[in-house]
Amino acid sequence: MASLQPNPLALVCELTHRCPLHCVYCSNPRELAARNSELDAETWTSVFRQAAELGVLQADFTGGEPLARTDVIELVRAARNAGLYVSLITSGLPLDEAKLDALISAGLDHFQLSFQAATEDVAEQISGTKTHAQKLRVLELLKSRRVGVTLNFVLHRRNLHQFGEMVAIAESSSASRIEFANVQYYGWGFANRDLLLPSREQLNDFMVKVKATEERLRGKIRVEHVVPDYYAKYPKPCMGGWGRKVMLIAPNGDALPCHAAGVIPGLCFENVKEKALREIWETSESFEKFRGESWMQEPCKTCDRRSQDFGGCRCQAMLLAGDAGATDPVCSLSPNRREVDAVLQSVPASDVTATPEFLYRSNPA
Amino acid sequence: MAIDPNSKPHLATGCRLGENDNQRVLLMPERALRLNGPSLEIVTRCDGKHTVAQIVADLQKLYSKAEPHKVESDILGYLELLQKDRALDFSA
Questions:
Q1: Peptide bond into A356 cis (omega under 30)
Q2: Are A254 and A280 spatial neighbours (Cβ–Cβ below 8 Å)?
Q3: pTM here?
Q4: Which of A32, A59, A207, A211 can bridge A84 by disulfide, Cβ–Cβ 3.0-4.6 Å?
């Protein structure tokens, strides 16, 4: 191998920041990319080819809502022709039977449908739209089609009580995989954190139930879950390590080491319209910034776990400690951990707010 | 979950073989497994035509220096792992 860097395995493609939903924990940055800044299909096609040459195996089409791109079928075909495994991470709208068939004919491998809750009323409170019934219709359409199906439920204080109903939706579908992803508190989620953080009791109850469900569905549905890191003892190995496995392309072509990297001041991102993907991956300042261990401070610097969790999440260190190079403050060894504990202590045991004053995600220009 | 030797394993919907940098890989939702030597020999036979017993017999021939019982238990263990990963389905 001539290259010093291991190659990226996944290319996260944010095709657009436009979305019909307004989820209060959206992972997009607070500053959304405008429609007229979006890459055209020709540029995306070149990016897919370059990615495959770089060793990338999977392209994850996401957004915003990737189906909001009128050329999404052409993009699926281009990524598949480049040799990539293509996943569509979607809210399920706008989508009808003909468009679903066209996506699958174009080579779509995997359809990941996101759910905000198990019922329309809770889903509407979270997404600011009535879209739950459409998602159930999409599940029906998927039953007779040859495409991998994952259901993704984003969990928080206002829907954890629906866990059993969520599992029931998955069991009545053709899904081979369920993801239970706790809200990550960046961007919109950070703005709404105090309305979304679950209580410790809720979380303990969830952990017992998810383990039992995983066991019961073994061999039928693969159950995966992400623990909310505010409650963890050690941080998550964010993105599998900075610039180690994943490359994210924003709608305007900026190449980022993770979704939220824009919150780190002073970090400049290269754009795929100006530079080759390989050059960005191997030499750009933003991907180099937190690679390896030389950037680490104590306690990470000499910690036995540094090669497992890579110091946790840089964006969370920025948000909570004001320093992107600090130990992730959720870590029990971090000098900032007590601030996270203080946030958790203010979480009510049972929610008393009838109508939470959420900041809903807006739409780009 | 015991595996029936007469069942025919095949890749589950959403899983397929791919190749990158001369390396065969099993592609599946959010994951990819590199396939080398025996694992590649096993997975390429998971085509809905070979029974588990045939796959075992084929590999016992291919790896004739290895203990046949060990080859069989390794294969069954690997198939169970892939089934747990939801990469394989078994038909009668």
A1: no
A2: no
A3: 0.95
A4: A59
